[in-house]
Amino acid sequence: MRKLFFRFKNRFVITFGLLVIESMAELLFPLAIGLAIDDFLAQKYNGLIHLALLGVFLILIGAIRRLVDSRFYASIYVELGGELSQSISPLSPSKKAAQMSLLTEIVEFLEYEMPTLFIYVIGLVGTLVILFQLNLDVAIASLITSIVTFGVYLATSFKTTRLNAGYNDEFEKRVDFVAKNKNDETIAHLSRFMRWNIRLSDLETVNYSLAWLTAIGLLVFTIVTTSIETVEYGLIFSVMMYVYQFIVGYTEVPLHYQQWLRLKEISSRINASLTQIKNEPLPDNPNNDV
Fold first, then answer.
1. pLDDT for 178
2. At a CB cut-off of 8 Å and minimum separation 6, what does 235 contact?
3. Alpha helices in 135-182 (DSSP H)
4. N or C: at which end does the chain have fewer Cβ atoms within 10 angstroms?
């Protein structure tokens, strides 16, 4: 993953630059809505105009980013797929097909999940900064709940990586079992494969449930605190929206972290295959004898 960023750094700078702009625009939305509410209640319309302009800007910048991204990541997939196909040709057809599929996961992560993760991270930091300005108690509570959630996912990182390794090991054997055309062996392979999938899903379910348990507590705390301390309806609405936005961020970011752990395992697997091939001695060719 790191090599990809350095190799295509100029194009990554462009797409991530657009992501920063889009993220900052999204970050201003709850505040703009709250100000628009207060202005409208005071029979003013500046807030509504600013909200509409912000919405149009967000649509435009988002459309431009997606147009750029689709072409950028398509070129990465074609370029890397061609290199990988040539490099791993001495491997078994099963591993070759599997690792081509795993490469697809890496590119799709970069195109779809990485931008979302980037937006969430910027949103988490920006939202927390704004909450510290709007309500100190709520901001501190938000920080504590996010640390607890991230701690749970970090504590299970090793188990996540181990389960992904078992999942990918079984996945690489698929073509071999299909080629044998033996129903019993194929069913046994699929059963083992799905057991790994179930164990990964169970771990994700437990972690995600714990994350939302802290989120519910934070929502209740925010409602009570803002209702007591604040009289402006627009400000209360803005704080609640920022807290919910923060909750979505700190419950979704760990899911992307789990996917990153999976791709890290995939990358090490592909790199190991490439290293193995590079270290293999060339076959003897009698035509080269002098």
1. 65
2. 34, 38, 134, 226
3. 136-155, 157-171, 174-180
4. C
Residue 9 gets which letter from DSSP? H
Three-point CA angle 38, 39, 41, nearest 5° = 65
Question: Which tokens go with 287?
Answer: 């035509």
pLDDT given at position 185: 75
- Band of the pLDDT at 287, cuts 50, 70, 90? very low
Contacts (Cβ under 8 Å, ≥6 apart) of 287: none
The SS3 of residue 241 is: helix
Give, to the nearest 10 degrees, the angle between helix 9-27 and helix 29-41. Answer: 20
Alpha carbons 75 and 92: distance in angstroms, whole number = 27
Q: DSSP letters of 253-266?
A: HHHHHHHHHHHHHH
- Residue (of 69, 77, 78) closest to 15 by Cα position: 69
The single-letter code of the amino acid at 263 is L
Q: What is the C-alpha to C-alpha distance for residues 161 and 149, in angstroms, rounded to an integer?
A: 18
Please tell me the pTM assigned to this model: 0.60
Which token pair is 221? 């705390």
User: What residue type is 192 in one-letter code?
Assistant: R
Give the H or E element holding residue 272: helix 233-279
d(CA 125, CA 25): 14
Say how far apart CA 114 and CA 227 lie, in whole Å.
37
Cα maximum dimension of the chain: 95
Chain segment 70-106, per-residue pLDDT in tens? 777 777 766 766 665 555 455 555 555 555 666 676 7
The one-letter amino acid code at 85 reads: S
Which whole-number Å values give the CA distances from 252 to 28, 117, 231, in the listed order? 20, 8, 32
Q: How many alpha carbons fall within 13 Å on the CB side of residue 226?
A: 24
